[in-house]
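Intended use. Records such as the Phospholipid-transporting ATPase entry shown here are meant for training and evaluating sequence-to-structure methods. They are not intended to support clinical decisions.
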Amino acid sequence: MANYESRPTYVFILCCPWSRCCGMGDFRPRTVWLGHPEKREQRYPRNVINNQKYNFFTFLPGVLFNQFKYFFNLYFLLLACSQFVNELRLGALYTYWVPLGIVLIITMIREAVEEIRCYLRDKEVNSQIYSKLSTRGTVKVKSSGIQVGDLIIVEKNQRVPADMIFLRTSERNGSCFLRTDQLDGETDWKLRLPVACTQRLPTAADLLQIRSYVYAEEPNIDIHNFIGTFTREDGDPPVNESLSIENTLWASTVIASGTVVGVVIYTGKELRSVMNTSNPKHKVGLFDLEVNCLTKILFGALVVVSLVMVALQHFAGRWYLQIFRFLLLFSNIVPISLRVNLDMGKMVFSWMIRKDSKIPGTVVRASTIPEQLGRISYLLTDKTGTLTQNEMVFRRLHLGTVAYGMDSMDEVQSHVFSAYTQPTHDLPASRAPAATKVRKTISSRVHEAVKAIALVHNVTPVYEANGVTDQAEAEQHYEDTCRVYQAASPDEVSLVQWTESVGLTLVGRDQSSMQLRTPSGQILNFTILQMFPFTYESKRMGIIVRDESTGEITFYMKGADVVMAGIVQYNDWLEEECGNMAREGLRVLVVSKKSLTEEQYQDFEARYVQAKLSVHDRSLKVATVIESLEMEMELLCLTGVEDQLQADVRPTLEILRNAGIKVWMLTGDKLETATCTAKNAHLVTRNQDIHIFRPVTTRGEAHLELNAFRRKHDCALVISGDSLEVCLKFYEYEFMELACQCPAVVCCRCAPTQKAQIVRLLQERTGKLTCAVGDGGNDVSMIQEADCGVGVEGKEGKQASLAADFSVTQFKHLGRLLMVHGRNSYKRSAALSQFVIHRSLCISTMQAVFSSVFYFASVPLYQGFLIIGYSTIYTMFPVFSLVLDKDVKSEVAMLYPELYKDLLKGRPLSFKTFLIWVLISIYQGSIIMYGALLLFESEFVHIVAISFTSLILTELLMVALTIQTWHWLMIVAELLSLACYIASLVFLHEFIDVYFITTVSFLWKVTVITLVSCLPLYILKYLRRRFSPPNYSKLTS
C-alpha cells in the first residue's frame, strides 16, 4: 500500500459554493449500469492521481517564471543580461552569471527532487493492481485504468482506488469496516453496509447477470453525506433501494475487514478525496517581509549613489550610460546571496527541530517559517485532545435521587448482578418490607440504566488472534482477552468498557443484531431494527432494538443535555445536575428510553423508509420522521466521563504565560466543562477572576454586557460561540480591544469557522503573530489561518498534523519548540541577514571610495574570480556558521522564558540594528580602501592585494566578534576559509602580485589596516558588555 502520509490532505467539511468557479468543471448526477462502462451517458475523467506542479515540458519555463516573478531575481537577471552590451560591460561575464546561475541551480535541484518524489508517489498509486469482474471472468487492471461502471474487488488492507458503491462483502455479518484516517483524519474504523439486494446474490459473478443501475448525485466536496438509489429492473417486482453514506467506499480509505466488491461511480478529479485536497495559503514569514523591506531600502541607496556619482561628473557626455554602469558597479549593495543564505539557514533550523531528542516525533512541514516561532504573541489552542488526552474515564452515574462515583461502582455491580441472578417471584410484593421495595426500585433503575448504556452506541467488538487463540475461535467463544472495541468516539468506548466492568458485556454485534453477556454468563440477544447515528447538528444518537427473549421493542437515545432536555419527560433535577457534573470537568450525556408497541413501530418504519427513498430534501424529511418518535421519553440517567489532561500541560502553559504569550482556548465543548478545564490546566490562575459573558442575542444586550465586562480588571473571559457572534456583528472593535487585554480567553461552543475567524481578527486588530494548536479535523481551518499552525498527533487522527506547519506528538513539546527553537531561529536569522548585508556593503563602500579618488570613473576595483570568491569560498562558511550560534543554553532558555519577551519587540532585526551595521560597513570599507591607497608603493596591483586581503581578514574577524558561543564547526569554517584564500593566491597572479605578498611590507600594512578597521569595534563590544550588558549575559556568567 502506498504511503501517502507525507502528502497532506485537507478536508473541508462544508460544501464549497464556488467549486464550479474553481475549475472543478460542470458536475452532473449520473446513472451507472453495473459492469457496463460502455453504457455511460457522459465522459468521465481518467482515474489518475496527479500531484505534480509541472510536467517534463513545463518544468524549466515554470521554475524560471516562479523565480523571476520576484523583483530582486528579475533585477539580477537584467544586470547579468546587460553585460552582453559592450558599453555596459564591466568585466568578465561570469562575474554576474555564475552567482545567478548558482542560485537558480540550487532552486531547480530542490524543485526537481520534489517533482521526482511526487511523480514516484503518484506512479506507485496509479500502478496498483486490482481485480475487476468482467464477462471474461476476473481480470487484473491498474488503478489508472479503472472506469465508471467497473465492478472492482478490493482485498483486506488494500486502498480503495475510486469512489464506489458497496455491493458485496465476504464477511459473514454482511458488513465491513473502513479505515478513513487518510481521508478525514479520524483513526476510528467506520462501519459500511452493502446494498441488500446484491449481498443476497449467490456469487459475485451474478452481479453481471442482473440488469441493475445506480443513480448517484453529482460529485461534490461533502465526504460525510451521499444521496443515491439502487434499482434492479429484472426483479419481480423491480427492486428500489435508497443509498446513503453507509453504502459508500470513498477513494483513499482502506478496507479493514473482509473482501469487498463495489461499482465505481466517481473517478479522477471527481473523487471526494481529490476535491477535498487543497493547497493551503502560502505563508510568508514576518521576518521575510522585514528583510524584503531592508533590501528595498538598499536598492534605493544603490540608485542614489549611482545618481550622485554621475552628478559629481556634472552629467557629462553619455551620462545615462554612466548611470547604468554605476548601477552595475555598485550592484553588490543588494546582496544576491541573502536569499540563498536565509533559505539554507531555514533548512538547518528545520533539521535541528526534527533531530531534537527532547521533542521526539516533531515534524516540520513548512520549512520556510521556523523563525516565526520566535515571535508568537497569541497562542490559540483547542481543548479536547490538545490540552486533554481525549482518553475517557467513566466517573459518574446519576439517577436523579442517587449518584454513583468511582468509589461506589461495586454497588452498581451488585445491583446488576442481583437483577440477573435473583428470581423475581421469590418474594411476593405484599409481604416485602418497605426497605426491600425501595432497594428493588433502585436496583431495577440501575439495571435499566446500565442496560441502556450497553445498547445505545455504535461500538463493535472485534476479536483478534492473540497467539493462543485464533480469530474464528475467539469470535465463537467471545474470548475476553482477544476482544477490542471499535467506535467513532472514545466516549462511546469508555461507556461500553464501564458496562463490562459492572457485569454487562457487549460481546457481539453486526448490522442487524447485538449480543450482551450477563454476569452469570447468559447471552442476551437483541435485534437492531433502526440506527440513528450521532451528528454534530443533532448532538444525539438513537437505536431501536427488539429483545429476542420477550419481543419488547424499545427506542433508546442518548445525547447532549441541551437537546435532550426538550425530549425527555419533565423533571426537576436534570439541568442542575448537568451543571454540577460539568463544573467538575465531566462530559455529560443524558440517556433515555421509550417502549414501542409493534403497531407504533410498523407505522414509524413505513414513514421512515418512504423518507429515505426521496432524492430531494432527504435529510430534512428523515429528521422530521425521527423527531415524531422523540417525545416524552423516560429519563434513565446521566453519565459523566472525564477527559484527563495531557502530560505537563500546566507547566507548559505557565512557561508560555511567563514568556509574554497570551493563551486563548477555543473549544466546541460546553461552557461549564471548558471553564473547569481552564481552571484545572491553570490557564486561569488561582488569583484571577473569571468573567462569564452572559448569553446575548441582541445589540442592546451585547452593549450592556460589554459595559459590565469593561468595569472588570485583570480577569479571564469565558464566552460562548453564539454570544461571540452577536458581539462581533455589532461591536467587533470594542470586543476585540477588551478581549486582547485579558490574561486568558475561553471561547466555548465554537464552530470551526469561528475559530478561524478569531485568528483572523487577532491578526488584523493587533498586528501580532498568532500560533494555533489543534488535533482534529475541526481545527484545520484555524491552523491554516494562523501565522504558525501546530498540529498535535492525537486520538482524532492525523488530519490536523498533516495540515499544520509543524507537527508535535504532545502539547508539552510546544514549550521547547517556541522557547528554544523559535528563539534561536529568529536570532540566528537576524544575525545572518545583517552579516550578509554588511559583507556586501563593505565591498560596495570600497568601490565608491575607489571611484571617487579616481575622478568618479566607473571602473571595477576587483575583477573576475576575486568578486565571486569574496562572497563564496572566502567568506561563505564562516558567515553561514552563524546559524549554529546561541546566546544561552537550551536549559536556560526553558528555565527563564522571560528571555522570549525581548523578541516580541523585534529588536534582533530592526531599523536601528540595520543602521548600526550600515555605519560599521561604511567605516570598515572606508578604512580599508583609504589605508590601501595611503600605504601602497608603486603599482595598482598592490592596492588590490592589500585591500582585498584586509577585507577578507576583516570579515573573518567580524564573524568572530559576532559569535556568542563557539562551536567546533565555526572554528573549522574560519580556518578553512583562510586556508582557501592563502592557497588560491598562487592562481590569482592575474590580479595579485605573488612576489609582493611574500614581503614583510605587505604583511605589516595588511595588519595595520585590519587592526584599525576591527579593533575599535572589539573595544566598543567590551565596553557595552561591561556597562550595559544584555539580559542573557547575567544568566550565562
